Amino acid sequence: MKLPVYLYGHPVLRAENAPLTPDYPELKGLISAMFDAMYVSEGVGLAAPQIGKNIRLVVIDGSPVADIYPECADSKMVLINPEITILDGEPVSRPEGCLSLPGINENVKRTEHIMLRWLDEDFNSHEKEISGFLARIVQHECDHLEGKVFIDHISPIRKQLIKAKLNNIVTGRTRVDYPVRYARKPR
Fold this sequence. Notes:
The two termini are 26 Å apart. By secondary structure, the chain is of the alpha+beta class. The chain has one domain (5-175): Peptide deformylase (Peptide Deformylase, Alpha-Beta Complex). It contains 4 helices and 9 strands, in the order βαβββββββαααβ.
């Protein structure tokens, strides 16, 4: 099953996301398809709303950036109903991009030391302190579960400066090399 990535402007990205339960149909297949969609689009994380499912599910694999961010090595994870607690540290500004906002990269301030609680694909409970770029990936993906995208963290001036790019995404004039679902039909 090839899953398209839903692009900025699609209402599914802003909708409420339901907690996931063990009786969710064909969950293992969905998780596998999400990893496939993430790898095809060369991402390091993907949240269920990005593939049109309003459930609290995230897949992450930061290993492609482990040469730059060693904390991302061996970071393949399935996060069901994740909860984040921000720990100590000043927010750090780093560029972020998103599969749902192709062609846009903006600096976002995030604390890079968190406590993550989640259930894995077998609904086993986990808790772990995560730091560095991996913490940023987790926060970015978990934002999707709250109906947020990374540009919600940038200034109104920066949003104004990228308004044309955002409009191109919404109206289907942005082309990408992975399967997508536009908010509106491309012209």
